[in-house]
Predict the structure.
Amino acid sequence: MNVEVTYTCIVLEFSRGPSYVVTCIGVTQQSRGNWDCPGEKFMSEELASVSTCPTRKRGEAATRPPAGMPYLPGGISERSPPWPAQRPSSSSRQDPNIIVDAEIYFKNQSNPSNSDIVRTFYTDVKENGFGNLIVDFGSIKSNNITVDLLAPLKVTVQFLITDGFEYGLTETTSSAYKERYAQINGWIEPVLKKYYTNTSKGPSISFRNSDGWIQAKLEYEFDTTNIVPSGNITNTILASTRPFIYVKYTLEVNDIPAKFDVFPYSLRIINYEFTPQLSNRSSVQFKNFSERVANAIQTLFTNKNGFTEVYVPKLSKGSIICSTEVTFLPGTTTNSSVAEEIRNGYSAIEATGLQLIPVSQSAGSQDSFPPFAIIIIVFCSVALLVLLVVIALLWKTGIFSRARRSFSPNSHKYIDISSLVLPHTRI
């Protein structure tokens, strides 16, 4: 029995990855007679964000996408119908298979590779299914890339380590590089292998100096058909046991940063003298003192919901001003709450041997010493200094001595004003 088959394209959008949305155009068969197929009704009931395109028959040219929607490079165009000439026939009931062509558009000007597209579709269908339809995974293809021809999947991880940077880390043959490489890879690789088992290439790890601390970047490649959301990997890394202290809010997986709220706060420690080494984040003195301050503040927030960690990114003179960062999970607290907690905890911090003064500042708090008073003090100090310099110069030139002699009664250079004739004034 010959059956006239028409094809209706159903647009299905599903998010996959951080910056693009895959738009899949599914094709359903409709015919005259007793053809058993799901049809548009099933598609609209089971799939989210469904809309229908104009009905067209096999061989008809595809409708051009809406204005502003770019074609996938090498994909369908007006000159290239979506139905290749050699394709299994669906004109008889004995061959009910359906071939689906997809026109894929991307948001935010992203341009994923064909391997990314195949992995995305493969992973989504494998995890979530495609309604009650059975998909032949081997048939998934984007241009010439199939599941068997996928390029290795690249996973990039980077973060900031609060250890002092040493220049041996830039030389891959140095003992400092090898030791740090083994330490980091021994931590991150087992985390990634929970999701990707087959490593196609050993990790590439690079280090750079970030104002005295170590910025680490790791690049892995895996032979896999799956793609895992970067957020899942980020959460697993954050929950794992770390071999050193790193700044958690600097963690990025595939350029997607971990999400934290960061609250800055400054403390002035007055019972310690500032030394030049404390301004160098790579020095032992900075590391020891900053960790002491961070630990003292951390005890104030240990039982607070959403609290993660305290960092001290900077120490400056006066006596020692500690710039701190208190981090929380997003939306779990406010800046004013953090500042109030620290002010109320001054006695607990001082119990650790760090003596504070009550004018310590935090973001959102107001110092009891007004800024205009500082300006007045500076101005008066400069004026007094200038006056002292002028007096010193006058003294050095002998002006004061000559002036004293001029006004002395014993001086022979005095002026006799009695001989002066003054003009008469009439009254």
In short: Residues 371-397 form the longest helix (27 residues). The longest strand covers residues 153-164.
